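Revision sheet: structure tokens.
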Amino acid sequence: MLHAAILKMLVLDGESVYTLTSHPILLLIARIILVNSRHKLASLQTVFWWTLRCVNIHQQLLEERSPELFSLAQTCIKQGTEAETLFTGSESWHLAVQFHLECAYTFLYYYEYKKAKQCFSMAKDITKLQINLTGALGKRTRFQEKYVAQLILDVQRTDEFLLPHSELSPSPTPLENLTMNYDLNDDTLLNEIKLADADQYRVPDLCAEELAVILGICIDLQKNNPVHKLTEEELLAFTSCLLSQPKFWAIQTSALFLRTKIEKGSTRRMERAMKQTQALADQFEDVNTSVSERMKIFYCCQVPPHWAIQRQLASLLFELGCISSALQIFEELEMWKDAVICYEKAGQHGKAEEILRRELEKKETPGLYCLLGDVLKDHQYYDKAWELSRHRSARAQRSKGLLHLRNREFRECVECFERSVQINPMQLGVWFSLGCAYIALEGYEGAAKAFQRCVTLEPDNAEAWNNLSTAYIRLKQKIKAFRTLQEALKCNYEHWQIWENYLLTSTDVGEFSEAIKAYHRLMDLREKYKDTQVLAILVRAVADGMADRAGEVASGLKGKLQELFGRVTSQVTNDGEIWRLYARLYGNGQNDSGEDIEKSLQYLTKAHKCEIQSSDWEKDVSSFKEVVKGAIEIAHVAIKCSKNKSNHQEALQILSSARLNLRGLSSKAKKLFVDVTSNEVHSEIADEVTTMDNMIAELQELSNQLRDQC
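Predicted:
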């Protein structure tokens, strides 16, 4: 009863504490002293720092991020940055490094990635370390004969700089008291990269703070990059460097835990990942390593809790198909959500319900009712959880809202999500789902607000930026949409839908240069991509000298647009409209430049060929008239082009080609569109036939004149 009461007192922002937390009363006492009675400890220089540590530990125990804890953490960090006397002087450098690292991890957890990066950089600058990913010749497999480039981490001290007062840094823990780093034992892969020149990249002997800085930069890299093979290789380079100097329990545990998470996806490394995770889980029972050794540099490393490692072990077992072993661990950890997922994936839906009802008989909690609602997809259990929590469970409203969303009941879904974020505004997923629900209801102002909160919480969420731009477009705020799409592309450069939105918005707001750039990128991402409407707008802007958003005349982009059309027509060769636009870009034969006139003729001819290759144009009068119009235009440009030719033979060929084209169309018109009774061409196409015949005569006359000159 006391344990349950203490856990209840540690609930914040509707988020409950992990039920199997050991000795939660110690955290409660720490909170009473460092948070509730902070004003009485003003004379204690480091009270802000210990409060920050208390906040970080408390947050690790909660299911979701707590705005109250984040606000308190920000206050502590602000006080720390103002406490100059504590971190000045050569003997305080290690304190400064530790404080900046702890601040960085706090910011990282609460989605403040830029601030976190700044803190990691400040810590690195104090240590004067140069940390770079680089290539070095080496061997990775047992049978490799030649040395090839391998990715490694190069760590050097600036100008052989030695940190002062090194005796103030924690002393290393004996190797036998550290978690064992298992070898790979693979028949092909080497345990570690064998470098051709190992001495060149030898890592200097690093102290606790320096190792913690390298780990911090590694975690920052992981958080700021997508899950990708290249990212994994970069992270493995960091973990290899850290594990090459096993000195501190906290750093060793964090580095090994990170490595197992990366290696679990590799068939050759899966066995080591499994053994290593088991060893990490077992080490907490090891009494040989004292608490004082484990606490060295502990707060600077964000060491995973015991149950997080056990959960990772259970997840690995589940992925390997050992469902009963995974279930046993999840049930021992009282992680009912994971246990339910196991049962659901194993197809034992009844067992999932049974286990939840069994636990509810022991004790009713909002969390268990929410899980039962998830399994049975029934709103009544979420309502029960909501009432049981006295309207303080963000999880209950979140789950209820998701069920409404799944059933496409968007209005009810919005109401639930709004209640959930009112209790805990730091739920990134809920804000995103709320925005999507608002878009479905065409409530674009609500959607814009929701996605704005998303990108505030997680600035590199490309999907949220893209959806925010959609909301702004619907609200007719196109400049804002353009800017948000620029942010989206910074987060995800490979997403073709975002690039397409960016292309359309750029064109819409008059950012013609950006539109050309976006079109090029779409062609990189999608084979034979085309958008004729956008190309038409860009050609009109350049040809008519329209002003872009900055007031600059778009004619200056003619060269870039010609380059784009060259690329488009090399991939899309059968679109007459695109060829016609290309010709217009060169002036449609109306320029004085002989080269431009020749290119216009070339592209108009290709457009005409594409049009006559399409089906049914001969049967429809309006389509036929369009083709005739194109042929007459070609004839006019051909006459102009022939006059610029010094070679009479070439000029004759151009005129003959245009004349033959018109003659063929005229003959076709007289066959297809003739009145049977009067034997005359239909009145609706008679003018075009007359124009063609006149043009044929003119071309014939010009050809005769040229022949006379030959």
